[in-house]
Design brief:
The structure is a single chain. By secondary structure, the protein is mainly alpha-helical. Helix content is about 60%, strand content about 5%. The chain contains 15 helices and 6 strands. It has a two-stranded antiparallel ribbon. A two-stranded antiparallel sheet has the order 3-4. The protein has a two-stranded antiparallel sheet with strand order 5-6. Helix 1 packs across helix 4, helix 2 packs parallel to helix 6 and helix 6 packs parallel to helix 9. The radius of gyration is 21 Å and the shape is globular. Bound molecules: NADPH dihydro-nicotinamide-adenine-dinucleotide phosphate (NDP). NADPH dihydro-nicotinamide-adenine-dinucleotide phosphate (NDP) binds next to helix 11, strand 6, helix 13 and helix 14. The site of NADPH dihydro-nicotinamide-adenine-dinucleotide phosphate (NDP) has 17 residues, from helix 11, strand 6, helix 13 and helix 14.
Length: about 350
C-alpha cells in the first residue's frame, strides 16, 4: 500500500482497535441518565475509556520506540489521515440511518441529526455515543503527541516550552474527561441528541484533527521564547476555565443523583421547585445558567495562548469554534428547558439572568 493510502486508513485502523479494546477490556457498569426507548429504563453503560486510552497511548510509545511507527508518523500523514477520518465520518453517518424509520420528512435532516437515540455496537457491549467520544479523544491525543514529537525532533536543541505546556494541558483535558466519563452520561448529547453526522463526523474527524489545530499551525515554527509569566498566565486561564467547567458539571451531577447532596462538603444546594421538579440555582448554577460553557472557552483560550504565538490567527479558531458552538447550544438547551420545565424555568431565568458569562451575557 502506498504511503498516502496508509495514512488515509490509519484512523480507520486506530478506531477499529479502540472498538475492539472497548468491547473486551474489563469495564465498570454504570447506570446512565438517558433511558432506553423501548423499555424506558435507564441505560446501563460499560465504561472503560481511561484503560483503553492508556493501552493505546502505551502502544503508540512502544511503536515509536521500536521504530514500527515513528513518533512523527501521524504528523507526516496528517492530511491523508484527516481525509480518511472525514470519509469514514461521512460513510458511518449514512450507515447509522440504514434500516431505521425516518424521523423527519427530510433525509438530509435525518442524516445530519440522526435517527437512533442510543444504539450500541459490538453486540451490545459498547454504547455508540460513548465509543465515539473515547475514539475521538484517543486519536486527538495521538495526533497531539505526534505533532509535538515533530516539533521537538525539528528543534532538538531549542524546543518551545509552550508546545510542551500545550501538550500537558491538552492531555489533562483529554484524561480528565475519561476519568469523569460517568459524569458525561448526564450531558446533553447523551440524553437529548440522536446519533447522526453531527455527532459521528464530529467525533471521528473534527475532534481528533481540528481540536489540535493550534499545534498543527505552529509545530513547524521555532521556539518563540515566551516569558515564564506568559506561560504561567496561560496555565492559570486554562485551569480557571477547568474549575468552572468541571465544578459546574460535578455540582449538577451530584444534584441530579441526590438533590440534597452538599457539594464538596461545603456548598448546600439551593433550588427552586414547582412541587414536582427542581432546578439548582446556587454555586456554579447561580453564577450564570451555563457557566460551564464559559469554562470551556477559557480552557481553549489558555491552550491557544500557551503555544506562544498569540498574533497568529489559526490557533484562535479553536476558542472561536467553542464560542460559536456553545452560544448556539445554550440557546437550544434554553428552549429545551423552557419546554420541559415551563414556569419553573422562567423563575430560574429571573433568578439567574445571565446565560453564560456572569454579570455580562
Ligand atoms: P449542561 O451540562 O449544562 O446540561 C444541560 C442540561 O442540564 C439541561 O438540558 C438540563 O437538563 C440540565 N440543567 C440545566 N440547568 C440546570 C439547573 N440549573 N439545575 C438542574 N439541571 C439543569 O450542558 P451540556 O450537556 O451541553 O454540556 C456538558 C459539558 O460538556 C459542559 O461542561 C460543556 O461545556 C461540555 N462540552 C464540551 C464540549 C467539547 O467539545 N469539549 C462540547 C460541548 C459541551 P435536565 O433535563 O436533566 O434537567
Amino acid at each position: 500500500m502506498t504511503e498516502p493510502l496508509l495514512g488515509f486508513f490509519a484512523p480507520w485502523v486506530i478506531f477499529g482497535l479502540i472498538l475492539g479494546l472497548q468491547a473486551f477490556v474489563p469495564a465498570r457498569r454504570v447506570e446512565g441518565y438517558a433511558r432506553d426507548e423501548a423499555s424506558n429504563k435507564p441505560i446501563v453503560y460499560r465504561l472503560n475509556g481511561l484503560s483503553v486510552f492508556l493501552i493505546v497511548v502505551a502502544a503508540w510509545f512502544a511503536a515509536g520506540y521500536t521504530g514500527v511507527m515513528p513518533y512523527e508518523w501521524l504528523w507526516e500523514h496528517r492530511w491523508s489521515g484527516l481525509a480518511g477520518a472525514f470519509a469514514l465520518g461521512l460513510i458511518a453517518s449514512g450507515i447509522a440511518m440504514v434500516g431505521v424509520p425516518a424521523r423527519s420528512a427530510s433525509r438530509l435532516k435525518d442524516y445530519f441529526l440522526g435517527r437512533r437515540e442510543n444504539p450500541s455496537l459490538a453486540g451490545g457491549r459498547v454504547d455508540a455515543k460513548m465509543y465515539l467520544y473515547v475514539a475521538g479523544a484517543i486519536l486527538l491525543e495521538l495526533n497531539l503527541l505526534s505533532f509535538a514529537a515533530h516539533h521537538v525532533l525539528s528543534y532538538p536543541t531549542d524546543p518551545s516550552p509552550g508546545v510542551i505546556l500545550y501538550i500537558c494541558l491538552f492531555s489533562w483535558f483529554v484524561c480528565e474527561y475519561l476519568v469523569y466519563e460517568h459524569v458525561h452520561l448526564y450531558t446533553y448529547d447523551l440524553f437529548a441528541e440522536r446519533l447522526g453526522f453531527k455527532l459521528i463526523w464530529g467525533c471521528l474527524m473534527f475532534y481528533p484533527y481540528c481540536y489540535g489545530m493550534g499545534l498543527w499551525a505552529v509545530a513547524d515554527l521555532a521556539n518563540p521564547h515566551s516569558p515564564a509569566w506568559y506561560l504561567v498566565l496561560s496555565a492559570v486561564i486554562f485551569f480557571s476555565g477547568w474549575i468552572f467547567a468541571r465544578g459546574a458539571n460535578m455540582q449538577k451531577y451530584y444534584f441530579k443523583r441526590n438533590p440534597s447532596h452538599v457539594f464538596l462538603g461545603l456548598f448546600k444546594p439551593q433550588s427552586i421547585s414547582d412541587g414536582e421538579r427542581q432546578v439548582l440555582c446556587s454555586g456554579f448554577w447561580g453564577l450564570s445558567r451555563h457557566v460551564n460553557y464559559l469554562g470551556e472557552v477559557l480552557m481553549a483560550t489558555g491552550l491557544t495562548l500557551a503555544l506562544g504565538w498569540p498574533w497568529l490567527i489559526v490557533p484562535w479558531l479553536y476558542p472561536l469554534y467553542y464560542v460559536v458552538l456553545l452560544t448556539t447550544r445554550e440557546r437550544d438547551d434554553d428552549r429545551r428547558c423552557e419546554e420541559k420545565y415551563g414556569e419553573l424555568w422562567h423563575r430560574y431565568r429571573e433568578k439567574v439572568p445571565r446565560r453564560i458569562v456572569p454579570y455580562i451575557y
